[in-house]
Amino acid sequence: MGERRFSRQRERIYQAVRASQVHPTAQMVYEELRAQMPRLSLGTVYRNLHLLAEEGLLVELDGPVARFDAQLRPHTHLRCMRCGCVADAEMAYDGGLDIQAARDGWQVESHSLIFNGICPACGKESEHLKGA
Amino acid sequence: MGERRFSRQRERIYQAVRASQVHPTAQMVYEELRAQMPRLSLGTVYRNLHLLAEEGLLVELDGPVARFDAQLRPHTHLRCMRCGCVADAEMAYDGGLDIQAARDGWQVESHSLIFNGICPACGKESEHLKGA
DNA sequence: CTCCTTAATAGTAATAATTATTTTTATTGT
DNA sequence: ACAATAAAAATAATTATTACTATTAAGGAG
């Protein structure tokens, strides 16, 4: 029956991300693998990256859409994993973290702390589904 | 001489972000303002959001390109503000933060902590410039 | 091992997000 | 008011991502 197949492409895409230290974009994975797999298509890379993320083998950083915030005092955010909305968290921003994060030759100036979860609205929807 | 002018559009765009609680995208700002400013163009919104961010009046969250990571154990990242590269930080992930962040009806499951700074490579470039 | 089913690919087209360009408008100093 | 030009509008172009369709190939049944 309809089992998920683990194709050579998916395996290579997964390994490419694992081997990389730069948290690559889809385009970067595509260009790297194309040398050895000339017929690989970018769509395949995108599809597999998302499938792998869905299976929990990869994590996706950042979104594909920029957002803006007028609250300048450094603070933290909550992002809904379901609808994508973003809200301010009430947690205090800990500037001391930046000092701890220093590493190698990096000069750290600030940080952004985003909590992933389910927003009130989406949480209610889930309850309804459960109740049905 | 070439002074920066603070146009009505820029003012309204800035205020729209300030008034919003949702950390809006450019598209969202555009749609909201269009009701009162039918001739406003999306390009103007983008340009002003970036100008405002450059001036330090706004902060830009997320980037326009998705990145992927095969390191599943929750961890923290370093991002270069100049070249955009991303690296793993050596700082431990503090799962306890998620509990502190709970708020309203939010269910918090995880967080992502990204430090902003200058990577070793870009740091060296700056030194060269200073030396010249 | 060969055949069949169908998941997954390649190739391509379409959409969405963002940036660049060109002409027009309007702010500001004189 | 007028000139100089920053910024806007309008539009085109680019980049990022997703959707669609025909073809390929993985994996189980015989």
What does this structure look like?
- The structure is a homodimer of 132-residue chains.
- Chain A has 132 residues and is an alpha+beta fold.
- Chain A has two domains: 1-70, Arc Repressor Mutant, subunit A (Orthogonal Bundle), CATH 1.10.10.10; 73-132, Dna Ligase, domain 1 (2-Layer Sandwich), CATH 3.30.1490.
- Chain A has helices at 8-19, 26-34, 42-55, 96-101, 120-131, and strands spanning 59-61, 67-69, 76-80, 86-88, 107-118.
- A three-stranded mixed β-sheet of chain A has the order 4-3-5.
- Chains A and B meet through α1, α2, α3, β1 and β2 of A and α1, α2, α3, β1 and β2 of B.
- β1 of chain A pairs antiparallel with β2 of chain B, so a sheet runs across the interface.
- The structure holds a DNA duplex (30 and 30 nucleotides).
What attributes does this structure have?
homodimer; 132 residues; alpha+beta; Arc Repressor Mutant, subunit A; Dna Ligase, domain 1; 2 domains; 3-stranded mixed sheet; 5 helices; 20% strand; flat; DNA-binding
